[in-house]
Specification:
Layout lengths: L13 H5 L14 H12 L10 E7 L3 H9 L2 H7 L4 E8 L1 E2 L2 E2 L3 H18 L3 E5 L4 H7 L6 E10 L12 H6 L12 E3 L2 E2 L2
Antiparallel strand pairs: 1-2, 2-6, 3-4, 5-6, 7-8
Helix pairs in contact: 2-5, 3-6
Keywords: Oxidoreductase
InterPro entries: Nitroreductase (IPR029479), Nitroreductase-like (IPR000415)
Organism: Saccharomonospora xinjiangensis XJ-54
Length: 196
């Protein structure tokens, strides 16, 4: 794969600049339990509203039944590449607890998952988040209780080598430049008036 570091207007931390979401993964590479534990520990220490800690993860490693059930819940287009991941995680939001509704639960899962993804980079791994899965199938497959909402699946793995073969435009898509809106269209002093 080509160098996918972000082209930024100012220097940012290398872990953030190096983070990207590949689909072309090494289907033989393993994600160790130790590394998975580090990812989940990073997620566990994310901030949350009132320290409600709403993020929960169902964790599957390639070859186990949990992995297969998560994989089976994915859309066909995501299954086509995600089967090469070393681990598949189902991120869920705990939307209620014994105190009632958990405010901003989805936001809390987003914060936790970004910690997880950045820790993956620090561990020499990559992680791609997917909304393309059947939530009801996942709910049924894992017997998720009321008050637990499946939000996203995260594929964790090792990027394939640059000369790895791909299918149906995978290599071209992986090598395409990354794009973001410019900072002038992202941060404002007044709406439409660039902050920088």
């Amino acid at each position: 794969m080509s160098d996918k570091r972000a082209e930024t207007s100012v220097r940012i931390h290398e872990i953030i600049a190096s983070r990207w979401s590949p689909r072309l993964l090494d289907g033989e590479a393993e994600v160790s339990g130790e590394k998975l534990r580090a990812l989940l520990e990073a997620a566990r220490w994310a901030p949350s509203y009132g320290n409600t800690q709403p993020a929960r993860y169902v964790v599957g490693q390639r070859g186990d039944g949990t992995y297969k059930r998560v994989l089976d819940s994915l859309t066909e287009s995501n299954r086509a590449w995600a089967h090469r991941a070393g681990a598949l995680l189902l991120a869920c939001a705990l939307t209620s607890n014994d105190k009632g509704t958990v405010p901003y639960a989805e936001y809390g899962v987003g914060l936790a998952t970004e910690n997880l993804v950045l820790q993956a980079v620090a561990e020499g791994l990559v992680a791609r988040q997917m909304a393309g899965f059947d939530r009801e199938a996942a709910r049924k497959a894992f017997d998720l209780p009321s008050g637990v909402e499946p939000l996203v699946v995260i594929a964790v793995g090792v990027p394939a080598k640059p000369d790895a073969p791909g299918e149906d435009g995978e290599v071209e898509r992986e090598n395409a430049p990354r794009r973001r809106v410019p900072l002038s269209e992202f941060a404002f002093k007044e709406w439409g008036s660039a902050a920088f």
